[in-house]
Amino acid sequence: MTTKKVERRIKIKFRIRKSVKGNAERPRMSVFRSNKQIYAQIINDLTGNTLVSASSLGMEAMPKKEQAAKVGELIAKKALDAGITKVVFDRNGYLYHGRVKELADGARKGGLNF
pTM score, two decimals? Predict the structure, then answer.
């Protein structure tokens, strides 16, 4: 019962995932965007563990782009506290535009390299 839009994103996601892999030195930062929230995780693909995560839950009072930028800064702060400075960015099939771009820019501003 998936729509064509979701099927297209899933195809793009698997095409991206073939080349984007996270390891211990450079974990993968994955982004999930719903209609109301945005989530980010830093994942070590070799072990399958989520190292750090952040979301926009509780930030409903501000516009969505500002929420995304704050989540980017928050995940960068948590990652730096965990000793992670370099990541591989996984846009998860979404276009690098709007909230996904704001999250990435916020993470870069917070000190992450990718």
Answer: 0.89
